[in-house]
């Protein structure tokens, strides 16, 4: 008997990403044709699995940001642990959709509860 869990359904669609990009173009002055700082988020009910995932993602060129637990519970009364990594990348909706597919697969392969999506911001220049 296998204890493998079902694959997480893809909740971030290409259409959603296309709308997100339009919104960014309309509401910011960010240069989306250049590198931006992309944050990626994973959840799991135990932090140890996220530590292992962090090490694998860092080996793939992601920068570790944090592993943390929120103070408040989610809709199911759980308080999952979160892994936040980031990477400076240039994306279009199509390339971000492909990256999300990779990260959904990574979460599944690592037995994590969830790949929870991404955020974006401009790359901050280091203070002199």
UniProtKB/TrEMBL annotation:
Residues 20-118 form the Regulator of ribonuclease activity B domain. Gene3D superfamilies: RraB-like (3.30.70.970). SUPFAM superfamilies: Hypothetical protein VC0424. It holds the Pfam family RraB. It comes from the Bacteria. This is Ribonuclease E inhibitor RraB.
